[in-house]
Design goal:
- This is Class II glutamine amidotransferase.
- The longest helix is centred in the middle third of the chain and has 18 residues.
- The strands form two sheets. This protein has a seven-stranded antiparallel sheet.
- It has about 280 residues and is of the alpha+beta class.
Length: about 280
């Protein structure tokens, strides 16, 4: 059920995380080790920022396709030449909505990018009621039919741009209240990645504490110390961080699991880990 990763740090080629690791995102599209489904072949997308601090002037770029990620030659070409300090990538396994480009992640609004793995349980039954929660000034920007895009626009409607975690928490609270009114006990299972071009937020949450897997890379100093003979790791800078649905390789000490009900804030300087829970909107 979808795989995604996100990167924050010194500019690197997007191909580093998609292709040039033991178990990169494109490999995960064909064989997800920790996903519910093995294949994630219902489309893919990447979204990237050119320079920190420029997102408000230059919105992020985006490339999406309904092709399986492993079968798209254009993705391999683009990833081998695209260098970015902050990007998000996603491979999709549909939970029932059509395989079409507008349903592929990342979703974008102004300088914001959003990816999600999981589902709104009972989405077909409560979709209409959820759509009514979207601010009328944003409603016309919804292009697809996925629960993920709708979650993003609900978060925008509940204040994501001014209060990212609060806006998302209020959106989740609205979804839970709507679902439970329809007899759905645990409506939300999710990991979310989102960015405004300056910071990166990653959230793991489930209404019934059964959310999807999520990992963050260990700090650069620890990785350099663990593997002094690996040139690639010695080039890591202190700000370099990766968030993934599942590890990109099996070397010990590289990855830390993000706990249930936790938000990770990756930013210049010290990162933060804070509890995440649904809020009444």
């Amino acid at each position: 059920m979808c795989r995604w990763n996100a990167y924050f740090g010194q500019p690197i080629l997007v191909s580093e995380l998609l292709y040039r690791t033991q178990h990169g995102l494109v490999a995960q599209a064909r064989q997800a080790n920790e996903g519910i489904e093995l294949l994630n072949g219902d489309g893919f997308g990447i979204g990237w920022y050119d320079d920190f601090g420029e997102a408000a002037v230059h919105p992020p770029g985006r490339y999406r396709s309904v092709q399986p990620a492993w079968n798209d030659v254009n993705l391999r070409e683009l990833a081998a030449h695209l260098r970015s300090p902050l990007f998000l990538a996603h491979v999709r396994m549909t939970t029932g909505t059509p395989v079409q480009q507008t349903n592929c992640h990342p979703f974008r609004h102004e300088q914001w990018l959003f990816v999600q793995n999981g589902e709104i349980v009972g989405y077909p039954e409560i979709r209409r009621d959820l759509l009514l929660g979207v601010d009328r000034t944003l409603f016309g920007e919804i292009e697809g039919t996925t629960d993920s895009e709708l979650m993003f626009f609900l978060a925008l409607s509940f204040g994501l741009q001014d209060d990212p975690l609060g806006g998302l928490a209020r959106a989740v609270g609205f979804i839970e209240a709507t679902g439970r009114a329809a007899g759905i006990d645990d409506p939300v299972e999710m990991t979310v990645g989102m960015s405004d071009g300056d910071r990166l937020w990653a959230v793991r949450y489930g209404s019934g504490a059964r959310s999807r897997t999520l990992y963050e890379s260990n700090d650069a100093d620890t990785i350099r110390s663990l593997y002094p003979d690996i040139e690639r790791f010695q080039g890591l800078q202190d700000e370099d961080r990766i968030v993934v649905s599942e590890p990109l390789g099996d070397l010990p000490g590289l990855w830390r699991e993000v706990p249930e009900g936790t938000a990770v804030v990756i930013q210049p300087g010290e990162d933060a880990h804070v509890p995440f829970a649904a809020l009444s909107p």
